[in-house]
Design goal:
Blueprint: E1 4-9, H1 19-33, E2 37-42, H2 54-59, H3 64-75, E3 78-84, H4 92-101, E4 108-109, E5 117-118, E6 124-130, H5 135-140, H6 145-155, E7 163-168, H7 176-192
Parallel strand pairs: 1-2, 1-3, 3-6, 6-7
Antiparallel strand pairs: 4-5
Length: 194
Amino acid sequence: MTARILILNGHPDPVRKGLCHALADAYAAGAAEAGHEVRRIDIAALQFDFVRSQAEFEHGDAPSDIVTAQQAIKWAGHMVVIFPLWLGDMPALLKSFFEQTLRPGFAYTYRPSGFPEMLLKGRSARVVVTMGMPAFIYRWYFRAHGLKSLKRNILRFVGLSPVRDTVLGSVGTRSKPEIARWFDDMKALGRRAA
């Protein structure tokens, strides 16, 4: 069965094409090999500012790059979010992207009861996080709080489910064969649209 996959490369560097970029390439290659439809957004290439008020968040006009991203999110049945861990969380540019795109009226609506109506149901997601520390330390000692927040408080909040994750640690000390295995794993996930 053909899937519609949106890959979000959340690395904020618009120039350097590092590990996150290569992981996105590998996932896209695997998905294309399996016949899935793939779209990709490199967050660093978009033009948008930070949301600075509740009024802007709830009623402001989204920038044109964000409107295009919203159309891609609506199109997708599966979303892949790839980013490096910075200070225990996603980079600020990626968080700003989510604040811009997942606005009320697009991603959810308010109900009188206080519980939101999720408007992006029927979509799944995978979050891929790279980091310098060992992955087990991030999960065990730090409790993966940044990853859990993204999965629960952002993606599931607007209806994406299931939301799975891949945590790639100790990136600075990995051998070339180990990194090559990561790329193979990303291709396999892309083929399965998982």
